[in-house]
Amino acid sequence: MILPVYIYGQPVLRKVAEDITPDYPNLKQLIENMFETMDRADGCGLAAPQIGLPIRVVVIDLDVMSDDFPEYKGYRKAFINPHIIETNDETDSQEEGCLSLPGIHEPVKRPTKIHVKYLDADLKEHDEWVEGFEARCMQHEFDHLEGKMFIDHLSALRKQMIKGKLNNMLKGNVRCSYKVKTVK
Ligand code: NI
Question: Which residues carry out catalysis?
Fold first, then answer.
Protein backbone atom coordinates (compact mmCIF):
# COMPACT_ATOMS: atom_id res chain seq x y z
CA MET A 1 0.00 0.00 0.00
CA ILE A 2 1.31 3.41 -0.96
CA LEU A 3 1.14 5.86 1.93
CA PRO A 4 1.25 9.67 1.85
CA VAL A 5 4.65 11.20 2.62
CA TYR A 6 4.63 13.67 5.51
CA ILE A 7 6.01 17.04 4.49
CA TYR A 8 8.15 19.59 6.35
CA GLY A 9 6.08 21.19 9.11
CA GLN A 10 4.52 17.93 10.28
CA PRO A 11 5.40 17.62 14.00
CA VAL A 12 6.20 13.88 13.71
CA LEU A 13 9.28 14.80 11.63
CA ARG A 14 10.70 16.59 14.68
CA LYS A 15 10.14 13.81 17.21
CA VAL A 16 12.81 11.43 18.46
CA ALA A 17 11.57 8.04 17.27
CA GLU A 18 11.30 5.07 19.63
CA ASP A 19 12.83 1.61 19.30
CA ILE A 20 10.23 -1.06 18.57
CA THR A 21 9.88 -4.56 20.03
CA PRO A 22 10.08 -7.66 17.79
CA ASP A 23 6.34 -8.22 18.21
CA TYR A 24 5.45 -4.82 16.72
CA PRO A 25 2.15 -5.48 14.90
CA ASN A 26 2.34 -6.12 11.15
CA LEU A 27 6.01 -5.17 10.89
CA LYS A 28 6.52 -7.09 7.63
CA GLN A 29 3.54 -5.30 6.10
CA LEU A 30 4.81 -1.92 7.32
CA ILE A 31 8.22 -2.51 5.73
CA GLU A 32 6.56 -3.57 2.47
CA ASN A 33 4.41 -0.42 2.50
CA MET A 34 7.47 1.73 3.13
CA PHE A 35 9.33 0.19 0.18
CA GLU A 36 6.29 0.68 -2.03
CA THR A 37 5.87 4.31 -0.93
CA MET A 38 9.58 5.03 -1.48
CA ASP A 39 9.55 3.39 -4.93
CA ARG A 40 6.48 5.33 -6.02
CA ALA A 41 8.18 8.58 -5.02
CA ASP A 42 11.50 7.58 -6.68
CA GLY A 43 13.32 7.88 -3.37
CA CYS A 44 16.38 5.93 -2.25
CA GLY A 45 15.40 5.94 1.42
CA LEU A 46 12.42 6.43 3.70
CA ALA A 47 12.14 6.63 7.49
CA ALA A 48 8.96 5.74 9.42
CA PRO A 49 8.41 9.34 10.69
CA GLN A 50 8.00 10.29 7.02
CA ILE A 51 4.82 8.20 6.94
CA GLY A 52 3.71 9.54 10.29
CA LEU A 53 5.09 6.88 12.64
CA PRO A 54 7.57 7.94 15.37
CA ILE A 55 9.35 4.55 15.41
CA ARG A 56 12.87 3.46 14.43
CA VAL A 57 12.24 1.76 11.08
CA VAL A 58 14.00 2.75 7.84
CA VAL A 59 14.16 1.36 4.31
CA ILE A 60 17.00 2.10 1.88
CA ASP A 61 17.33 1.18 -1.78
CA LEU A 62 20.78 1.67 -3.28
CA ASP A 63 20.08 -0.67 -6.18
CA VAL A 64 18.83 2.41 -8.05
CA MET A 65 22.48 3.59 -8.08
CA SER A 66 23.94 0.30 -9.24
CA ASP A 67 24.59 1.52 -12.78
CA ASP A 68 27.25 3.83 -11.33
CA PHE A 69 28.05 1.74 -8.24
CA PRO A 70 27.93 -1.98 -9.08
CA GLU A 71 28.62 -2.86 -5.42
CA TYR A 72 25.06 -1.73 -4.61
CA LYS A 73 23.40 -4.18 -7.02
CA GLY A 74 20.39 -5.73 -5.25
CA TYR A 75 20.78 -3.46 -2.19
CA ARG A 76 17.27 -3.08 -0.75
CA LYS A 77 17.39 -3.21 3.01
CA ALA A 78 15.22 -2.50 6.02
CA PHE A 79 16.76 -1.27 9.27
CA ILE A 80 15.02 -1.82 12.60
CA ASN A 81 16.13 0.14 15.68
CA PRO A 82 19.25 1.55 14.00
CA HIS A 83 21.67 3.58 16.07
CA ILE A 84 24.88 5.33 15.04
CA ILE A 85 27.51 4.45 17.65
CA GLU A 86 30.39 6.56 16.35
CA THR A 87 31.70 8.27 13.23
CA ASN A 88 35.15 8.99 11.83
CA ASP A 89 36.61 12.51 11.70
CA GLU A 90 36.86 12.77 7.93
CA THR A 91 33.92 14.46 6.21
CA ASP A 92 32.77 15.07 2.67
CA SER A 93 30.02 17.06 1.08
CA GLN A 94 27.40 15.82 -1.38
CA GLU A 95 24.05 17.02 -2.61
CA GLU A 96 21.04 15.55 -0.81
CA GLY A 97 17.31 15.71 -1.24
CA CYS A 98 14.43 14.37 0.85
CA LEU A 99 10.91 13.19 0.03
CA SER A 100 9.68 15.35 2.93
CA LEU A 101 11.33 18.42 1.39
CA PRO A 102 10.29 18.33 -2.27
CA GLY A 103 12.20 20.71 -4.53
CA ILE A 104 15.14 21.27 -2.17
CA HIS A 105 18.58 19.89 -3.01
CA GLU A 106 21.62 21.11 -1.12
CA PRO A 107 25.14 19.89 -0.41
CA VAL A 108 25.45 18.41 3.09
CA LYS A 109 28.71 17.77 4.94
CA ARG A 110 28.82 14.45 6.79
CA PRO A 111 31.36 11.98 8.22
CA THR A 112 32.52 9.48 5.57
CA LYS A 113 32.38 6.40 7.84
CA ILE A 114 29.95 5.39 10.55
CA HIS A 115 29.69 2.57 13.08
CA VAL A 116 26.07 1.38 13.18
CA LYS A 117 24.01 -1.17 15.06
CA TYR A 118 20.62 -2.33 13.81
CA LEU A 119 18.35 -5.30 13.19
CA ASP A 120 17.59 -6.36 9.62
CA ALA A 121 14.14 -7.35 8.33
CA ASP A 122 14.64 -10.85 9.81
CA LEU A 123 15.52 -9.23 13.16
CA LYS A 124 19.12 -10.40 12.89
CA GLU A 125 21.55 -8.13 14.74
CA HIS A 126 24.23 -6.23 12.83
CA ASP A 127 27.16 -4.24 14.19
CA GLU A 128 29.34 -2.78 11.45
CA TRP A 129 31.27 0.15 9.98
CA VAL A 130 29.94 1.42 6.66
CA GLU A 131 31.28 4.04 4.28
CA GLY A 132 30.63 5.79 0.99
CA PHE A 133 27.17 6.46 -0.32
CA GLU A 134 25.70 3.82 2.00
CA ALA A 135 27.03 5.71 5.04
CA ARG A 136 25.65 9.00 3.74
CA CYS A 137 22.25 7.54 3.01
CA MET A 138 22.07 5.88 6.43
CA GLN A 139 23.00 9.12 8.17
CA HIS A 140 20.30 11.00 6.27
CA GLU A 141 17.64 8.40 7.13
CA PHE A 142 18.76 7.82 10.72
CA ASP A 143 18.71 11.61 11.25
CA HIS A 144 14.95 11.39 10.64
CA LEU A 145 14.76 9.10 13.69
CA GLU A 146 16.35 11.84 15.81
CA GLY A 147 13.83 14.42 14.61
CA LYS A 148 16.42 15.94 12.27
CA MET A 149 16.31 16.77 8.58
CA PHE A 150 19.15 17.45 6.17
CA ILE A 151 18.40 21.17 6.09
CA ASP A 152 19.48 21.33 9.75
CA HIS A 153 23.05 20.79 8.55
CA LEU A 154 23.06 23.83 6.24
CA SER A 155 24.75 27.16 6.89
CA ALA A 156 22.65 30.13 7.98
CA LEU A 157 23.06 31.59 4.49
CA ARG A 158 21.85 28.45 2.69
CA LYS A 159 18.93 28.19 5.13
CA GLN A 160 17.99 31.76 4.32
CA MET A 161 18.02 30.91 0.61
CA ILE A 162 15.53 28.05 0.96
CA LYS A 163 13.24 29.86 3.40
CA GLY A 164 10.68 30.72 0.72
CA LYS A 165 10.37 27.09 -0.32
CA LEU A 166 9.97 25.98 3.30
CA ASN A 167 7.28 28.60 3.92
CA ASN A 168 5.41 27.34 0.88
CA MET A 169 5.48 23.82 2.31
CA LEU A 170 4.04 25.12 5.60
CA LYS A 171 1.21 26.69 3.60
CA GLY A 172 0.56 23.38 1.86
CA ASN A 173 1.91 24.59 -1.48
CA VAL A 174 3.80 21.49 -2.56
CA ARG A 175 4.32 20.29 -6.06
CA CYS A 176 5.43 16.72 -6.49
CA SER A 177 4.42 13.54 -8.24
CA TYR A 178 3.57 11.52 -5.12
CA LYS A 179 0.88 11.65 -2.43
CA VAL A 180 1.80 13.94 0.47
CA LYS A 181 0.46 15.12 3.80
CA THR A 182 1.17 18.77 4.59
CA VAL A 183 0.27 20.63 7.80
CA LYS A 184 -2.32 22.71 5.99
NI1 NI B 1 14.81 12.44 4.11
Answer: 141
